[in-house]
Amino acid sequence: xxxxxxxxxxxQDAVHGGAPQHWDxxxxxxxxxxxxxxxxxxxxxxxxxxxxxxxxxCLASGDDGMWxxxxxxxxxxxPEFIEMLKSYQKEx
Length: 92
What we know:
By secondary structure, this protein is of the alpha+beta class. About 15% of the residues lie in helices and about 45% in strands. The chain has 1 helix and 5 strands. It starts with a strand and ends with a helix. The model has no long low-confidence stretch (mean pLDDT about 90).
């Protein structure tokens, strides 16, 4: 899987840990990032370094090339995140 350059929208200040229930498009920020995307640039899920450069990772959901930042988390959780996905896949 290769990184793809995408444009992501942040309507809830997710890069700073904002809550998903905030949806104020008047304060929307737009970032261009290089991300790993499930199903390519028109895909459904993206993972990338936080564009504010604080060392965390962001997750974005997408549909038809429209990406919204949903969440950020510390990089040290990545191994557990991978283990969670592997466990889920084994279950199915």
